[in-house]
Amino acid sequence: MQVVEKIAGMRHLRRQLAEPVGFVPTMGYLHDGHLSLVRAARAESRSVVVSIFVNPTQFGPQEDLASYPRDTERDLTLLTKEAVDAVFMPSAAEMYPGRFGVYVDGGKTAGRLEGACRPGHFRGVATVVAKLFNIVRPTRAYFGQKDAQQVAVIKKMVADLNMDLEVVALPTVREPDGLAMSSRNVYLNPAERRAALTLYRSLCLAQRLWREGETDAGLLRRKMVALIEKEPLASIDYVSIAGAETLDELDEVKPPVLVSLAVRIGGTRLIDNIVL
Ligand code: AMP
Questions:
Q1: Which atom, in ligand 1's list, is nearest to the CA of 29?
Q2: What's the pLDDT at 52?
Q3: How far apart are the first and last CA of the chain?
Q4: Whose CA is nearest to atom 8 of ligand 1?
Q5: Which helix (H) or strand (E) holds 115?
């Protein structure tokens, strides 16, 4: 496995990689969710590239850029075991030199949900993913459904900007009790870890009510909110029931529907979703 820190080095290595090239962009501190993407890329490609880059432009000024968990040594050990060909691990200065100035706007999809709570987040995501696509030139890029809106923004960017690659979205990997795996789960103390289950429980409640025939989206939202509000450590950023492609909020549940939420558990902001 080759580890490359410079853009020129990655471009040089890319020219030697056998096609098709599968690519998994990450911010590191890898868990089984990330590794499920790496394994899919490995199974479907002759070459696999993983990037590890905590992208400053997608963090707001009050967010956890400085404290975001990092363990490069462990990440590289895990990726070696997955038979990854190359890891691209640039510095912030390498990706955003002083003269940097052109950004990719995430469009209308980027303005809702996470975008409404985290202004500029998807501009940072779309910009760095576009840069990584230009540097790595993958045949296919793999993303987790855990970040459903990110998948929607990137698919739209690839379509609208005519990028020549396929975007593959894979299911959310969960802990045995249902909590979606996330690098940020490490911030939770034991009481918060228990409280964090409220996200998955509220999604399961919406799914159960819908399966039982409930189609009033407002009612599903209210039931989810009521369940989460029973948890003293939780405070809700949003609970959304939206069209899975447009992300427009719905009055009536008409599949495919994205049920998504962002909830703060103590000081940690967690997101999760399911598709009905
Ligand atoms: P991150 O390192 O958080 O930027 O995530 C890198 C990629 O892994 C993104 O495509 C995420 O959607 C994906 N990912 C993160 N957590 C999970 C999970 N629990 N299941 C599946 N994919 C995930």
A1: 2
A2: 98
A3: 40
A4: 34
A5: helix 113-117
Segment 170-205, tens digit of pLDDT? 999 999 999 999 999 999 999 999 999 999 999 999
The residue contributing the CA closest to ligand 1 atom 7 is 26
- Mean pLDDT across the chain: 97
Strand order in the sheet with 140-144: 2-4, 86-88, 47-52, 21-26, 140-144, 166-170
Q: Which domains does the chain have, with CATH numbers?
A: 2-170 (3.40.50.620), 183-270 (3.30.1300.10)
Q: Read off the tokens for 70.
A: 């990092």
Q: What is the mean pLDDT of residues 100-105?
A: 97
Ligand 1 centroid distance, CA of 213 (Å): 32
pLDDT, residue 246, reads 87
Q: Which of 147, 170, 183, 274 to mutate to test the pocket of ligand 1 (most atoms within 8 A of CB)?
A: 147
Q: What is the mean pLDDT of residues 114-133?
A: 97
pLDDT of amino acid 245: 86
**If you measure from the C-alpha of residue 159 to the centroid of ligand 1, how many angstroms do you get, rounded to a whole number?**
21
Please list the active-site residues: 34
Residue 7: both structure tokens together: 């853009």
Q: Are 255 and 145 in contact (CB under 8 A)?
A: no
Contact between 220 and 209 under an 8 Å Cβ cutoff? The reply is yes
Place of tokens 């009790």: 177
DSSP-assigned letter for residue 256 = S
Confidence (pTM):
0.97
Give yes or no for a contact between 203 and 261, defined as CB atoms under 8 angstroms apart: yes
